């Protein structure tokens, strides 16, 4: 739809209820025109047909009848900048600059919904927990319905629920276990979607030491009975270190019923340190338990990952050991990158709260690595992004789920990440997984860590408020900063130094100075960094997804309405082609090493996908030599254990490229993708 002026366009959108009036009123219209001029002067154009198609198909505002587009990319950027700046003119200008130059990309729910009159929430994802009683189960199903309706994907932990056959009110064998609850949740998500924009999506997590673990995994098997099979629900495992130890030593493994554990320890199963208490729990006759072989469960996990791409794996002890926040991380989200502390609730018979715990909502955004490295001011760019993400947290008020509302109001959490690593490396003629690539990744995420801390400290000082629990954190006592003041993370390789030429890189003295500022002034955001997966938005950014290698040099996508679209890897040329190797032909050891280099500086997690071929190329993995070239459960077990050794906090999908050119486990999560 064409308009003669910007004013005419905004008047039309407001009169016809396409955009909200409140955020527009916070600015003089002359200023809005000034921001628009700045955006238009950047002369933005899509670099590929795929980028333009994805934007107009999924993100652009259309008339109610779908006959006309009401905005292009520039106009969506304008609304995002004005909306997230919340009346702050300087921030609106800065944010417009970051967005139109594609240094910053808000998550899909934020970018899509900002400023719209009829919209879902801006939040990317939620994490909620169930306690072991009907009141809590009912409340959690209601929460799942509500959250799926208004926002992104929902992660739910079932670890606290008693297992099948456990007693209820001293009646033996009365409990049905976790599987029927999974079916209830799956139906809830199918029913509740975001104004019809997309299918509701959920993930359920279970601790590997739960008595129902085998039944939980069986729900995803191809030959599972329809009564127990879950088709659309994602499965995730909470894996303590003790499991890896039992597998390594080929020992028996005891599974514990949460009902008995809670009775003995006086707290829900999720909040008990199983690695620490395992031997005591085995010895305690008050805790019902059963024995299986640890390696048989390990093999079952690998089989299921081959068959379906599930389950996700959260190395819960690794996550907790690295966490600077007092409290316990018990689960993750739909894409396995959100790792934050929670506290349990107690629900009364009338569904009110006797004790209001805390759950999680998270707002995600991503830096475009290629473009941020070209920023005139790296630090200013990251600070601008941190402020924009924090606004989403501050403006979010999820009153339908009081635990999420409380968690958000106390923690102000955000999750800034990165995408386009492979594009950056190829453009600069660097091999993925090489020494230079790993050092670059480490320094890049160290910079994100540093500048988000600077921004969060400035916000705390400006607002006169830190996140609840700051005083008990390793930020407040300074311990978090010790590794940076004791070790120099600045680049040591000449090639890496060249890449960061002209960009300020903090050394130990800078970190020491920041430590003192944070200990004095506090931090506004409890959590700051997380690397989410990238879906269609990486095409719009003309970059590669997340931190993993490309899938194909020329990607072929079947789009329902128009047929096949071909998408060449960004910056693909005769010079860069040899640096673009498919993820399916790249050793996952290199991918794990890359993510480990970033993980050291990221306070939350990362959506690390493993890419495998049914027939593995020769020379890719040393342990395959002299054995079959077919992918086996052993390959996945070795990679999961290697990732654990490298302090990787979570593993997302396992995607397998089959011999008949199909993909298993390629169903992307649309809710949390940046």
Automatic annotation (TrEMBL):
Keywords: Allosteric enzyme, ATP-binding, Deoxyribonucleotide synthesis, Disulfide bond, Nucleotide-binding, Oxidoreductase. One of its GO terms (cellular component) is ribonucleoside-diphosphate reductase complex. It catalyses: a 2'-deoxyribonucleoside 5'-diphosphate + [thioredoxin]-disulfide + H2O = a ribonucleoside 5'-diphosphate + [thioredoxin]-dithiol. Residues 511-533 form the Ribonucleotide reductase large subunit domain. The keyword Nucleotide-binding applies. Pfam families: Ribonuc_red_lgC, Ribonuc_red_lgN, RNR_N. One of its GO terms (molecular function) is ATP binding. PROSITE patterns: RIBORED_LARGE. Provides the precursors necessary for DNA synthesis. Catalyzes the biosynthesis of deoxyribonucleotides from the corresponding ribonucleotides. Belongs to the ribonucleoside diphosphate reductase large chain family. This is Ribonucleoside-diphosphate reductase. GO terms for biological process: deoxyribonucleotide biosynthetic process. It comes from Ligilactobacillus equi DPC 6820. Its EC number is 1.17.4.1. It is an enzyme of class 1 (oxidoreductase). InterPro entries: NrdE_NrdA_C, RNR_1b_NrdE, RNR_lg_C, RNR_lsu_N, RNR_N, RNR_R1-su_N, Rrm1.
């Amino acid at each position: 739809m064409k308009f003669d002026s910007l004013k005419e366009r905004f008047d039309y959108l407001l009169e016809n209820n396409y955009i909200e009036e409140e955020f527009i009123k916070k600015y003089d219209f002359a200023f809005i025109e000034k921001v628009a001029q700045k955006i238009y002067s950047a002369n933005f154009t899509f670099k590929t047909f795929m980028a333009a198609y994805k934007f107009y198909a999924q993100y652009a505002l259309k008339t109610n009848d779908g006959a006309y587009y009401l905005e292009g990319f520039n106009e969506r950027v304008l609304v995002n900048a004005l909306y997230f700046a919340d009346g702050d003119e300087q921030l609106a200008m800065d944010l417009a600059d970051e967005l139109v130059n594609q240094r910053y990309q808000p998550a899909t729910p934020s970018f899509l919904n900002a400023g719209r009159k009829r919209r879902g929430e801006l939040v990317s994802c939620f994490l909620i927990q169930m306690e072991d009683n009907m009141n809590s189960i009912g409340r959690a199903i209601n929460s799942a319905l509500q959250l799926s309706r208004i926002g992104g994907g929902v992660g739910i932990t079932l670890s606290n629920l008693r297992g099948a056959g456990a007693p209820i009110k001293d009646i033996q064998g009365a409990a049905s276990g976790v599987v029927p609850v999974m079916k209830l949740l799956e139906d809830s998500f199918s029913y509740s979607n975001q104004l019809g924009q997309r299918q509701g999506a959920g993930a359920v997590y279970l601790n590997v030491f739960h008595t129902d673990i085998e039944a939980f995994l069986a729900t995803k098997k191809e030959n599972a009975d329809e009564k127990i099979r879950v088709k659309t629900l994602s499965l995730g495992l909470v894996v303590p270190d003790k499991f890896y130890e039992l597998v390594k030593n080929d020992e028996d493994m005891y599974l514990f019923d949460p009902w008995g554990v809670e009775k003995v320890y006086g707290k829900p199963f999720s909040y008990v340190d199983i690695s620490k208490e395992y031997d005591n729990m085995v010895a305690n006759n008050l805790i019902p338990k059963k024995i299986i072989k640890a390696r048989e469960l390990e093999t079952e996990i690998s089989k299921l990952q081959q068959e379906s791409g599930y389950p996700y794996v959260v190395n819960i002890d690794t996550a907790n050991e690295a966490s600077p926040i007092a409290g316990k991380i018990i689960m993750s989200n739909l894409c396995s990158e959100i790792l934050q502390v929670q506290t349990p609730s107690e629900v009364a018979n009338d569904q009110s709260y006797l004790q209001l715990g805390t759950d999680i909502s998270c707002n995600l955004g991503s830096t475009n690595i290629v473009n941020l490295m070209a920023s005139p001011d790296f630090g200013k760019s990251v600070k601008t992004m941190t402020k924009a993400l924090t606004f989403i947290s501050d403006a979010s008020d999820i009153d339908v789920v009081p635990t999420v509302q409380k968690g958000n109001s106390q923690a102000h959490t955000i999750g800034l990440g990165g995408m386009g690593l492979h594009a950056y490396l190829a453009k600069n003629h660097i091999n993925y997984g090489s020494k230079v690539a790993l050092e670059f990744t480490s320094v890049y995420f160290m910079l994100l860590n540093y500048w988000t801390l600077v921004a969060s400290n400035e916000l705390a000082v400006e607002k006169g408020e830190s996140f609840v629990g700051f005083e008990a954190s390793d930020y407040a006592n300074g311990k978090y900063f010790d590794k940076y003041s004791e070790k120099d993370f600045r680049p040591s390789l000449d090639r890496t130094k060249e890449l960061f030429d002209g960009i300020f890189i903090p050394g130990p003295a800078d970190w020491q100075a920041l430590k003192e500022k944070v200990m004095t002034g506090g931090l506004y955001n409890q959590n700051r960094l997380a690397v989410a997966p990238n879906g269609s938005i990486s095409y719009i950014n003309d970059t590669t997804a997340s931190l993993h290698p490309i899938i194909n040099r020329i990607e072929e996508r079947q789009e329902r309405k128009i047929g096949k679209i071909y998408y060449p890897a960004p910056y693909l040329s005769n010079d860069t082609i040899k640096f673009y190797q498919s993820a399916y032909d790249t050793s996952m050891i290199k991918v794990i090493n890359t993510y480990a280099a970033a993980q050291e500086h990221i306070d939350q997690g990362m959506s690390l996908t493993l890419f495998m071929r049914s027939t593995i190329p020769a020379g890719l993995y040393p342990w395959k030599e002299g054995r079959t070239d077919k992918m086996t459960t052993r390959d996945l077990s070795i990679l999961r254990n290697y990732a654990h050794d490298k302090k990787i906090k979570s593993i997302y999908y396992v995607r397998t490229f089959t011999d008949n050119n199909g993909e298993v486990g390629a169903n992307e999560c649309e809710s949390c993708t940046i």
